[in-house]
Design brief:
Blueprint lengths: L14 H23 L4 H36 L3 H15 L1
C-alpha cells in the first residue's frame, strides 16, 4: 500500500482486511455487470452499485487507517518530506 523508500520499509497490518474488502467489491461489481447483461431493472442495478460503492469506501477507510498508523508515522519519524507530501496528496484525493 505505501510506497517503500530505500531508507526504510513500512509495516502493514491491514493487508488481509483490504484484500477481503476488495474481493467483496469485485463480487458486487461482477453482479452489476451480470445484471446489466441480463437486462435487469435499473433500480436493482442501482442498489447493487450502491453495494459496490460502499465496499470500495470501506476498503479506502482501511487503507487510510493503515496509512495514518504506519506510513505517515514512519515518514514523520525519518522526516521524509517527499513521502509525507505524497501521502498527503493521496489522502486528499481519497477524501474528495
Amino acid at each position: 500500500m505505501c510506497e517503500q523508500h530505500s531508507d526504510h520499509a513500512h509495516t502493514h497490518t491491514q493487508t488481509r482486511a483490504v484484500v477481503n474488502r476488495l474481493a467483496r467489491a469485485i463480487g458486487h461489481l461482477e453482479r452489476v455487470k451480470a445484471m446489466v447483461e441480463e437486462g435487469r431493472d435499473c433500480a436493482e442495478v442501482l442498489v447493487q452499485l450502491s453495494a459496490v460503492r460502499s465496499a470500495l469506501n470501506n476498503t479506502g477507510k482501511v487503507i487510510l487507517k493503515d496509512h495514518l498508523e504506519h506510513c505517515i508515522v514512519d515518514a514523520m519519524s525519518t522526516q521524509d518530506r517527499a513521502a509525507i507530501d505524497e501521502l498527503n496528496r493521496a489522502i486528499e484525493q481519497f477524501v474528495k
